[in-house]
Amino acid sequence: MGKDVFQRCYDFHDAELVRQSGLYPYFQALEGSDGPTVRCNGREVVMLGSNNYLGLTHHPDVLRAAHEAIDRYGTGCTGSRFLNGNLALHDTLEKELAAFFHKEAALVFSAGFLANAGTLTLLADDPDVVIFSDADNHASIIEGLQRVRGEVRIFRSPDDLRAKLAGQADWSHALVVTEGIFSMTGRVSDLRPFADLQKQYGFRLYLDDAHGIGVLGPQGRGTAAEQGLLDDVDLLFGTFSKSFASVGGFVVGEARVIDYLRHRARTFMFTAGLPPASAAAALAALRVMQEDDEMFERLAANAAFLKQGLERLGWFTMGSRTPIIPAFVGSESLSFRICKDLLELGVFTTPVMYPAVPYGQALIRTSVTPALTRAQLQQAIDAFAVVRHRYPIPPVDPENLPRTEGMDYTYFLTQG
Ligand code: PMP
Q: Ligand 1: does its nearest atom lie under 6 Å from the Cβ of 179?
């Protein structure tokens, strides 16, 4: 007898186990938001769990642009940009993005996931190319590199990449794919070794800077711009779902490459265009980024305040120098327990565990925006002080992070 295709769903018990422990942290229904705070379970809590790095979801120019776009175009594109869903707004957004990054052209997709997956599938689906993909790359990159005809090789560090390239003098048929800021730990890539290897071997460089754009570099041009290496990036990926306060994603690069993507990337052609309000919000955010330098200073000051506050309490923040500030816990189930307690203390954070980080390296991910006040940040630090006293969190050796064989279930096995 054949197997019921739903059998694997019926056999899935992980979420229920965590629900029964009372520590299930996902799908919290937010009832409202003003940016720095959200309403959750009928209470206002300080939001340290978003990617709203510039706090632009509630900026007056961004709100106005979204409202006006709805008035002008309605609520949806009702079709692919390829056919009936292309708005003048999309074209303007692409022009201004390309100019902002000093590249020839840009292509806007309806989600960052679709931009990464569609672009990489298209480029990698050729038996003559080799793709070197960073082991820590985002799921949308991994998705794009599934079932392609090119050879996909994983590298773990620039040194590992160097070793993998060493056997051959010319890699002009290769694409190297990495990220600017790794989203869970806030680790910033040093892109210099990639640029040097590129000069030596002639490969193309694809940079996913979802978390770096809006955060690092002049006017938020990202990790490569901060390191003076924007010209070395052949295709730069960004998303509107973080600093740009909207939804959607884009790639910028050479005009002929972008034109090919526009006519061949399935995740672009066979889905409806980015809705008017979302496109307008992203465009307004891009303009605000170029006008308000002070916003970046406030962001850096808030990040430093929270990081120092957590470190003073003994939390290990993994060397972060971005608005993403992890508080290292170790045990997976304890990180869930702590998130629940923090929420009860009025602070929204998210637990991060395997496979986003190795087993035994679970953490609480926090992130700040320029809109958070000192009082709100201090409230968060005070909550972290309470949980620090409540639970046994061992000191961490930064050079030697703990690793375990599997997940620590301890706190899932006791009723929360
Ligand atoms: N790349 C990275 C590094 C990301 O963190 C994300 C979003 N989590 C994406 C790509 C996908 O972006 P989007 O949310 O626009 O689909």
A: yes
